[in-house]
């Protein structure tokens, strides 16, 4: 009978340990604006890419959509926002949007549109390692998913995981 008691105690200990490392995840999809014209607007390929972003994320639970106040970033996320009935929330800086996300969006799923020089910094600010310092000017097909894991145990630190995907037509 002793082995059964030991097994039961071991099982109880494992269940207790597993429940103490329960966590909440915040998911942040991050994209650079779609293909652009020399002025602050999307070119025809960018319009197609914005609709492809909508197609890719349409069946994903998205709680909020953020964009810089540039026309090209807003137009990149607008098809998805319209399809989901969500407003596009404008932000001025990575610091501003990250504070807002971490304060009010714990456990939520978000989409954030940025720029070639701000997307890598946003990824780093979340605690992940960005795959590059700047996105090349000709590259518009990156879709990043940052998962910030918030452990229930406040003694443990948040952890960050990054998934780097592509969407739409391949760009150099």
Q: Can you describe what's shown?
A:
Strand 2, helix 3 (71-84) and strand 3 (88-91) form a beta-alpha-beta unit. The chain is α/β, with parallel strands linked by helices and 172 residues long. The chain has a 6-stranded mixed β-sheet with strand order 3-2-4-1-5-6, sandwiched between helices. Helices cover 38% and strands 25% of the residues.
Quick structural gist:
The protein has 172 residues and is α/β, with parallel strands linked by helices. The protein has helices at residues 2-20, 44-57, 71-84, 94-104, 119-125, and strands spanning 23-32, 64-68, 88-91, 109-114, 142-151, 159-166. A six-stranded mixed beta sheet has the order 3-2-4-1-5-6, with helices on both faces.
- The share of residues in extended strands comes to 25-35%
Sketch the topology as an H/E string, one letter per element: HEHEHEHEHEE
The pLDDT mean sits at: 87
Report strand order across the widest sheet: 3-2-4-1-5-6
The termini sit apart by 67 Å
Topology:
Blueprint: H1 2-20, E1 23-32, H2 44-57, E2 64-68, H3 71-84, E3 88-91, H4 94-104, E4 109-114, H5 119-125, E5 142-151, E6 159-166
Parallel strand pairs: 1-4, 2-3, 2-4
Antiparallel strand pairs: 1-5, 5-6
Helix pairs in contact: 2-3
Key descriptive features of the protein:
172 residues; alpha/beta; 6 strands; 25% strand
